Amino acid sequence: MAGEQPKKTQQVALDGTDVAILAALAEDGRMTNAALAARAGVAESTCAYRLRALRDSGVLTGIRAHLSPEALGRPLHAIIKVRLGSHSRELVHTLYDRLTGLPGVLTVFHVGGDDDFLLHVAVAGPEALRDLILEHVTVHPMVRQTETQLVFEVREGRGVLPA
């Protein structure tokens, strides 16, 4: 939600059953509890209990659909680096909320270093990328500079689960 700070969670010790459940969900988030239990080698009631515990502990924060930007008419990916001229906490959080709400923005990273934000965007083409930057990013008075890098290919990483 806009303006909501991420929930801070404690590191949770996971056993093999927890990892098996999470790995199966990461592969197919639509898996039924029965299929998930069979995959993890536990009873359905145990699986349901473990899922609830993983949610309650903050390990499992949600399950989402993966959409194809290309199939939705947004084949051009780019990373937009945003550098700010001022850094008041309130203005930074307000800008962060606005950036995450822009159409075509896939991910926004608030980072340290020379840049302040990195936006991964998917747009229809070069003109749409230009318009996104000029009409929605550089219009904010605190934005001092942007730099855009085109993305040639995107691959998901292995993730955070142990092997």
Automatic annotation (TrEMBL):
Domain HTH asnC-type residues, every copy: 14-75
Q: List, in alphabetical order, the Gene Ontology terms for molecular function in this entry.
A: sequence-specific DNA binding
Q: Which InterPro entries match?
A: AsnC-type_HTH_dom (IPR000485), Dimeric_a/b-barrel (IPR011008), Tscrpt_reg_AsnC-like (IPR019888), Tscrpt_reg_AsnC/Lrp_C (IPR019887), WH-like_DNA-bd_sf (IPR036388), WH_DNA-bd_sf (IPR036390)
| Any GO BP annotation | response to amino acid
**Listed SUPFAM superfamilies:** Dimeric alpha+beta barrel, Winged helix' DNA-binding domain
PROSITE patterns linked: HTH_ASNC_2 (PS50956)
Q: Which UniProt keywords apply?
A: DNA-binding, Transcription, Transcription regulation
Entry-linked SMART domains: HTH_ASNC
Please give the GO cellular component terms listed in this UniProt entry: cytosol
Specify the protein name. Lrp/AsnC family transcriptional regulator
Q: In which organism is this protein found?
A: Glycomyces terrestris
